[in-house]
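Possible regression after last week's pipeline update?

I re-ran a chain I had predicted before the update to compare outputs. Posting the input and the new output here so someone can diff against the archived version. Not blocking, just want to make sure nothing changed silently.
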Amino acid sequence: MMERGGDVITRVVESRKSIHVIPHIAKHVRPRSRVYSDEAHTWNELRWSDDYDLHTVNHRKKEWARGPVSVNTLEGFWAGVKRMIQGTHVWVSKRYLQNYLCEVEFRANLRTRPDLMMRLLLTAFPPARP
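New output (post-update):
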């Protein structure tokens, strides 16, 4: 999930089925939010819900954007994740996939404040005691 101009949240889910995806959306996306997605069946529950204002683009019809409706930013994020895995790590196990995603999420969410990255990393790992 990615807020326009804001942060990204990643989660490893069991499948792309609504039953596995929608609970994460409900947990992290405020009701009445405008949601942009593609035409995947995963989003049907959102389409019929009064909780979200769903707008979609239809990639099968070669539609990538319609006015403000687009998922290009999120697709760009995932393209970067794939390049990182293939280029830097070559392969990641399912067991540690969420850890790798957290790393990319951390960097993406601090993209406008790179000056904070090192400080946050250092405070996350306190110095070892002699």
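Follow-up from reviewer: compared with the archived run. The CA atoms of residues 38 and 57 lie 5 Å apart. Marking as no regression found.
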